[in-house]
Specification:
- This is GNAT family N-acetyltransferase.
- The protein contains seven helices and seven strands; from the N terminus they run E-H-H-E-E-H-E-H-E-H-E-E-H-H.
- The protein has 194 residues and is an alpha+beta fold.
- The chain has a single domain, classed as Aminopeptidase, CATH 3.40.630.30.
- The protein has a seven-stranded mixed β-sheet, sandwiched between helices.
- Strand 2 and strand 3 form a beta hairpin.
Length: 194
């Protein structure tokens, strides 16, 4: 059976936290309160599940989120409208099977009916050519670099233009909004937040 991609549920957070903190040097460790904050502010927070086991997750948010990440703030200061991929983690035994691409295609389908850009960052220290190459093959281009804090790692700030957005904006967003269908609705949890 293939993994199912679905919205995260509150009871998934312990498993998400464990997966995140076992992610290695390419992902920042977090704690329960910070993960809870991400859960509360994320416009997109989906998990991959197979046989009741989480295989990975991806968290993303719109430019209006209240988030103190220096990388997110960099994008806020440079772009008016975007979806920011904060983190993606795939369980070690599930890596190399295309699950990262599935998540990126899914978040792109979420983003391209809402914003013109999909953004993220990759660590340049320690160097991870596989991650840089993955993002390049997914259409991302470097738009900047920065050091995370005084002693944090250097990151490459990446953006991907979403070519479908102008059509969606002209056809729907400028004329009453998106059709009211399930697959276009945003994360319900995110919509009811303040």
């Amino acid at each position: 059976m293939a993994p199912a991609i679905r919205d995260v549920r509150e009871h998934d957070l312990d498993a998400v936290l464990a997966l995140n903190n076992a992610g290695g040097t390419s992902i920042l460790a977090t704690d329960p309160s910070r993960l809870r904050h991400l859960y509360d502010i994320a416009d997109y927070f989906r998990v991959a599940e197979q046989d009741r086991r989480l295989l990975g997750f991806l968290i993303a948010m719109r430019e209006t989120a209240v988030y103190d990440s220096p990388n997110f703030r960099w994008f806020q200061s440079h772009y008016e409208s975007f979806v920011y991929i904060d983190r993606i983690v795939i369980a070690p035994e599930s890596r190399g099977h295309g699950l990262g691409r599935v998540f990126y295609c899914d978040v792109q389908s979420f983003a391209e009916v809402r914003v013109p850009l999909l953004t993220c960052e990759v660590f340049l220290e320690p160097r991870n050519d596989q991650t840089v190459l993955f993002h390049g093959t997914m259409g991302f281009q470097e738009v900047g670099q920065q050091q995370m804090g005084e002693s944090g790692p250097k990151v490459s700030l990446l953006a991907r233009e979403l070519p479908s957005f102008p059509f969606v904006r002209e056809r729907y967003l400028d004329h009453g909004g998106l059709p009211d269908v399930d697959w276009l609705r945003g994360r319900q949890h995110a919509e009811v937040r303040a």
